[in-house]
Design a protein that fits this description.
Structural class: alpha/beta
Catalytic activity: [(1->4)-beta-D-mannuronosyl](n) = [alginate](n)
Distance between the termini: 62 Å
CATH superfamily of the domain at 64-394: Single-stranded right-handed beta-helix, Pectin lyase-like
Shape: elongated
EC number: 5.1.3.37
CATH class of the domain at 64-394: Mainly Beta
Subcellular location: Periplasm
CATH architecture of the domain at 64-394: 3 Solenoid
InterPro entries: Beta_helix, Carb-bd_sugar_hydrolysis-dom, Mannuronan_C5-epimerase, Para_beta_helix_rpt-2, PbH1, Pectin_lyas_fold, Pectin_lyase_fold/virulence
Pfam families: Beta_helix (PF13229)
Helix content: 10-25%
Length: about 525
């Protein structure tokens, strides 16, 4: 079996060999704010630290068969070609800032789109009803669309195995907007460059490429399908996007949050592999996101109860493999593989709380394995973080982060790194979100081994609790070495945790004084 197919045999063996033979060079970790002056180290009650393994969502109902059962074919829909102007579903692309010019130039006239309304339409039926200059079959089962395709609020579009490939023309300005229900099963949908007779591969962030967008109140199901060469750096045009309307539009139309499932599918060469905004109960399961440009999987603002499970995310070129950002709460990220991404494997960002990150394999990413930025109250359980270039787990400005039964091994810097940072002068966008420059961690069980700068470094913590943490195979010839606050009290910490087998509480004296007052 190749290292990519099952990388942990090679990575674990390499880490253990490295730790038992030669010491890695120590790389200092910068302190970013002044630490509290005095900390106490004491034994802590063990019982409150006991936590049962987390209960994961039941995934058995998310199947291709279940998706088929959701398709309502009883009412035959209507197909029309009409102007894009004054269509609610297209206002994002036709409104101010001369947005219409893009489509005027590509269509050489007043922009038009293909619309599905009033019921179910099979894509092969759609192709028969649309003039061939706009949509035609170029080979058996292969279709080229030269106009946008819009599923209206009452429409249901089904693209299934009868369509071997749907090609959305870059030159024609084709894209897909779902304002009703969309089912894509057992097929391929690709951005297509007619000039090259090939995929519309990424060339520039500003160059239009076809995309798929689903609006508020919609349902989108993509099953056992492949999508490639979508998206560019334009709002709502990122690749595969699930989004709300603007607040005013949502209120006017009385629409609910969008939802749907992506199962067993593959996405490559997308600006964003998956993006969602104000989306609830969406499931991304058993899919592959490879060689995408900015992000692999990127749920965003005020999305909740998402399930991201069993996916493989690798080769993201600019940023992270999986990231949730800005109040993405109450969600589950588990049993994924995230590797060889330009920055971190998994990121929890900007006031995203009450999430579970469990049983993921995160390795060979070019910065951290798991990164938590300004996001408290999250549980990180049973992950394997191996051979990432910087930290295994990095926690910044986040409190009540519980790290249970994780393995962080052979990472370039620290196994678990906790720190605070003042962002007010460095990133105005981040600074607009309220957060405290505080960090507190509970680290229970697991293993921190052969990390380049040591197992643990925690600067200026509100509190730290440690229990049953294995720290074998130090990378330094001098043995186990802590950094930050822990380094100053290392002998006491190790005596309590290793020799006496007790839980350890590291607490600033200033905080104790405040609590007493």
């Amino acid at each position: 079996m190749s290292p990519q197919a099952n990388p942990f045999h090679a990575l674990l063996a390499g880490a253990l060999l490295l730790s038992s033979s030669i010491a890695l060079a120590s790389t200092p970790v910068a302190k970013e704010l002044q630490q509290a002056k005095t900390y106490t180290v004491s034994s802590a009650p063990i019982e409150p630290l006991h936590l049962a393994p987390p209960t994961l969502p039941d995934l058995t109902g998310y199947t291709a068969e279940a998706v088929q059962n959701k398709i309502d074919r009883r009412h035959k829909g209507k197909v029309s070609v009409r102007r894009m102007l004054q269509e609610d579903a297209l206002k994002e692309f036709i409104g101010g800032d001369n947005k219409m010019a893009e489509w005027v130039a590509r269509q050489h006239g007043i922009p038009q789109a293909i619309f599905i309304d009033g019921g179910h339409v099979d894509f092969t039926e759609l192709a028969r009803q649309v003039p061939k200059q706009y949509l035609r079959e170029t080979a058996p089962g292969v279709y080229l669309a030269r106009l946008p395709i819009v599923v209206g609020h009452s429409g249901v579009l089904e693209i299934d195995r009868k369509v071997k490939e749907l090609r959305l023309s870059q030159e024609g300005g084709a894209f897909m907007v779902n304002d009703g229900k969309l089912f894509v099963t057992d097929t391929q949908v690709n951005g297509w460059r007619e000039k090259d007779n090939g995929p519309a591969t990424f060339r520039s962030p500003s160059e239009f490429r076809p995309f798929l967008l689903s609006w508020g109140g919609t349902e989108t199901y993509i099953v056992n399908s492949k999508m490639a060469s979508f998206g560019y750096a334009k709002s709502k045009s990122y690749g595969v996007s699930i989004s709300q309307y603007t607040p005013n539009m949502a209120k006017t139309m009385g629409r609910e949050e969008p939802t749907g499932w992506i199962i067993g599918s593959e996405f490559s060469d997308m600006w964003y592999g998956f993006y969602c905004y104000e989306t609830s109960d969406f499931v991304v399961k058993d899919s592959t996101y490879r060689d995408n440009i900015v992000y692999g999987i990127d749920p965003h603002d005020r999305s909740h109860r998402l399930i991201i499970a069993g996916n493989t995310v690798h080769g993201t070129k600019k940023k992270h493999g999986i990231i949730v950002s800005r109040e993405v709460n109450d969600s589950w990220i588990f049993n994924n593989k995230s590797f060889d991404n330009k920055l971190s494997g998994v990121v929890i960002d900007r006031n995203s709380v009450n999430n579970l990150i469990a049983y993921n394999e995160i390795y060979r990413n070019h910065t951290d394995g798991i990164t938590l930025y300004e996001s408290g109250d999250n549980l990180i359980w049973g992950n394997k973080l191996i051979s990432n270039r910087r930290h295994g787990i990095r926690v910044r400005n986040s409190v009540n982060i519980r790290l249970y039964e994780n393995v962080a091994m052979a990472n370039g810097l620290v196994g678990v790194y906790g720190h605070i940072k003042d962002l007010s002068d460095t990133d105005r966008d981040i600074a607009l979100d309220p957060f405290d420059t505080k960090v507190s961690l509970i680290v229970v069980g697991g293993e921190l081994a052969a990390n380049g700068s040591g197992p643990l470094s925690i600067d200026s913590p509100l509190s730290v609790e440690l229990y049953r943490v294995s720290m074998l195979a130090p990378s330094k010839a001098s043995g186990i070495s802590f950094s930050g606050v822990l380094g100053e009290r290392q002998d006491e910490i190790l005596d309590l945790m290793v020799r006496q087998q007790k839980a350890v509480l590291i607490d600033p004296v200033e905080r104790q004084t405040e609590m007493a007052d």
